[in-house]
Each structure stands twice: as structure tokens, then as C-alpha cells.
Amino acid sequence: MSLQKDVKTLLFDEIGDEADIADSVLGKEMVQELTDTQRKILDLISLSLEKIDKGTYGICEHCGKMITKKRLKVLPWAKYCIKCQNNIEK
């Protein structure tokens, strides 16, 4: 029993209290439960943030023209303008 208590103490000292551990475990479970679509959207959001840093956010990756503000308001992670997106989907 004393050994278990010592191990718990070591764990809690390193990670935090039980609530922190529970939050950490729940956070990992939530990430694992993300759907493929959610993962793709998160990837696109990350890419958009990188583009903001580079100054290329809002530029269509296919034709190089600006993506309309209206489209970016609806789909902030859009990679293509509407015309190119429609051509890609055909």
C-alpha cells in the first residue's frame, strides 16, 4: 500500500493533481475521436494560419487569384476560388 502511495505521489508531482490527469486523458480521448472530416478541417486551418504568416492567405492555390472575402467568410480555410473549386469538383 505504501508503494502505491509513493507511486501516486510521484505521478501527481510530475503531472499535477487528479483533475489535471483526468483533463489530460479526456483531451487525448477527444483528439482520438475526431472524425476524418474534422481532422482535415483542422489541417486546413493550420495551413491557413501558415499562409497568414507567409502573406499568402486568400490566394487561390490553383490560379493564383484572390479568393473573395465572401467565400473566406463562409469557408475561412478555402484553398481555391469558387471557379477553380468548381472545376476541381467536376
Which labels suit this protein?
single chain; 90 residues; mainly alpha; 2 domains; elongated
Describe this structure in words.
There is one protein chain. By secondary structure, this protein is mainly alpha-helical. The protein has helices at 2-15, 18-32, 36-54, 69-74, 82-89. The model has no long low-confidence stretch (mean pLDDT 81). The chain has two domains: 1-57; 58-89, no CATH class. The N and C termini lie far apart (67 Å). The chain is 69% helix and 0% strand.
Topology overview:
Blueprint: H1 2-15, H2 18-32, H3 36-54, H4 69-74, H5 82-89
Number of domains: 2
Number of helices: 5
In the predicted model, the low-confidence regions spanning at least 5 consecutive residues are none
Shape call? elongated
Major sheet: size, sense and barrel closure?
Answer: none
Rg value: 22 Å
What structural category characterises the helix and strand content? Answer: mainly alpha
Secondary structure: helix percent: 55-70%
* Proportion of strand residues: under 5%
Q: What is the typical, i.e. mean, pLDDT?
A: 81
Distance between the ends: 67 Å
Q: H/E series, N to C?
A: HHHHH
Q: Tally the beta strands.
A: 0
Short description:
The protein has about 90 residues and is mainly α. The chain is about 70% helix and about 0% strand. The chain contains 5 helices and no strands.
